[in-house]
Design brief:
It is built from nine helices and no strands. The mean pLDDT is 93. It is an all-alpha fold and 201 residues long. The radius of gyration is 19 Å and the shape is globular.
């Protein structure tokens, strides 16, 4: 906020030291804090255009979250998938295309697992889990767009998410209107890029 990069770096280092110490004592309780600290440091490195340092920090966050996911993948799959997708984008920038593809594939597998989890939960408690399903579908669609600009694979989960948000918007417009608008815009953009202009309009 104050533009004090040196102060920010010192604070991040102290936060990392504290969270690392806590995680050593109790990984289950403090592991997520440690991973989020690595992610924040990665964001800071990106702002400083230190892409390789950012890649290392994000990789460490994924390593910690994977350790936590080995005991509870339902809680951490979504976070890991997002981190893998971000790391994939960084590796594209670094011209590590093979590693980027491996990261994207793993991210897709985790997103699909999350989507299927929420599909099963929607059948039991639709009011609670439909928003989670729509959000997960949108993330899957975004991955296809970022990974390979695959419009045909991106459109299906986006349209399913859109259908859910339309339904939710009728019930609670104030809560879901923004998500509906953003998803509508994304679907329209995909059709526009496919040159299906009538549908996009």
């Amino acid at each position: 906020k104050e533009g004090d990069k040196k102060g920010a770096k010192e604070s991040f280092n102290e936060a990392l030291e504290i969270s690392s110490g806590l995680a050593k004592k109790d990984m289950t309780k403090y592991g997520d804090t440690l991973a989020q600290t690595h992610n924040s440091i990665g964001d800071f490195h990106l702002q400083e255009n230190r892409v390789e340092d950012a890649e290392k920090s994000y990789s460490e966050a994924i390593r910690v979250h994977k350790r936590l996911a080995s005991k509870n993948h339902q809680l951490y799959d979504m976070r890991i998938a997002k981190e893998l997708a971000n790391l994939g984008a960084i590796n594209i920038f670094l011209n590590n295309k093979k590693r980027a593809e491996r990261l994207y594939k793993e991210a897709e597998a985790r997103y699909l697992r999350v989507v299927e989890l929420y599909r099963s939960l929607v059948t039991k408690e639709p009011k609670i889990y439909k928003p989670h399903l729509a959000y997960s579908l949108n993330n899957l669609s975004n991955l296809h767009l970022h990974r390979e600009q695959n419009l045909s694979r991106a459109i299906k989960p986006s349209e399913e998410a859109l259908s859910i948000y339309k339904e939710l918007d009728k019930i609670e417009s104030k809560k879901y209107n923004e998500a509906l608008i953003l998803t509508l815009y994304k679907v329209a953009s995909i059709y526009n890029r496919q040159e299906k202009f009538n549908i996009a309009q």
